[in-house]
């Protein structure tokens, strides 16, 4: 799965940011969401929603449901050889349920792309501590499962397996950029706190330099030099 191009802080030969004159349109509403944050929430949505690429995009809105989170938990448990209903699987489900409840405060059961972004934005404004706690809990559960050899570090192999199972990342670009950007001290392994920082930054940071922005893969180099799908 490939993220759309968004050339955050990528400078052209003239020192200007390509595409910066044509940023993605801010969502309508009283409090527009930061474009980078919106890009990340779209990325999360696309990685988790159970809809084959290219289907349902026009006629039927694609919606994220808790079922999508259940499927992610099942994929992760299975990838690391935990049975359905195992302690590890149930822990993941509990963490994802906690996060889902923060998304779906209205109890609608399904959130399209706009609604999902709006719900996370609302949680950031009104329930930031709860959102960060939920993200941290989920991160703990995922890291504990992925740390197969129990050395309290995630090797590149372990982290790639987690991303592939939980978020269905399958491109070398995504897997490589996600891992290498998160390894802040260039130690060659990820410490738990590096992954925690990344998860929290992914959901909260509006700083283009935050490594956690690329938790699910970094932006691709522009093809054709016109700023990708957001620019023209
Ligand atoms: Ca390890």
TrEMBL record:
Residues annotated as domain EF-hand: 91-126, 170-205
Domain of life: Bacteria
Annotated SMART domains: EFh
UniProt-annotated stretches for the region Disordered: 1-32, 210-232
Protein name: EF-hand domain-containing protein
Lineage: Bacteria, Bacillati, Actinomycetota, Actinomycetes, Kitasatosporales
């Amino acid at each position: 799965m490939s993220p759309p191009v968004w050339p955050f802080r990528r400078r052209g030969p003239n020192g200007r940011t390509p595409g910066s004159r044509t940023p993605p349109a801010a969502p309508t509403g009283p409090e527009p969401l930061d474009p980078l944050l919106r890009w990340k929430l779209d990325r999360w949505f696309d990685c988790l929603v159970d809809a084959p690429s290219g289907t349902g995009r026009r006629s039927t809105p694609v919606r994220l449901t808790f079922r999508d989170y259940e499927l992610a938990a099942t994929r992760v448990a299975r990838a690391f050889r935990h049975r359905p209903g195992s302690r590890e699987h149930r822990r993941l489900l509990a963490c994802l349920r906690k996060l889902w409840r923060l998304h779906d405060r209205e109890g609608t059961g399904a959130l399209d792309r706009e609604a999902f972004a709006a719900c996370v934005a609302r949680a950031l404004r009104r329930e930031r501590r709860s959102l960060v706690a939920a993200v941290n809990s989920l991160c703990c559960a995922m890291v504990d499962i992925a740390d197969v050899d129990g050395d309290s570090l995630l090797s590149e192999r372990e982290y790639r397996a987690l991303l592939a199972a939980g978020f269905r990342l399958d491109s070398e670009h995504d897997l490589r950029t996600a891992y290498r950007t998160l390894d802040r001290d260039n130690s060659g392994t990820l410490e738990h706190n590096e992954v925690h920082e990344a998860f929290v930054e992914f959901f909260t940071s509006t700083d283009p330099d935050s490594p956690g922005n690329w938790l699910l893969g970094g932006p691709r180099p522009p093809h054709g030099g016109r700023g990708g799908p957001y620019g023209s």
